[in-house]
Amino acid sequence: MAKTMDKCRLCRRAGEKLFLKGERCFSQKCAMVRRPTPPGMHGAKKVRSASEFGRQLAMKQKIKRIYGVMERQFRRHFEEARKTRGIVGTELMGRLERRLDNVVYRLGFAPSRALARQLVSHKSFLVNGKRADIPSMEVQVGDVVSVKEEKREKTYFKNLSESIANRKDIPGWLELDPKRLEGKVIGTPSRGDTEVNVDPQLVVEYYSK
Question: Would you say 67 and 96 are in contact if contact means Cβ atoms under 8 Å apart?
Answer without folding.
Answer: yes
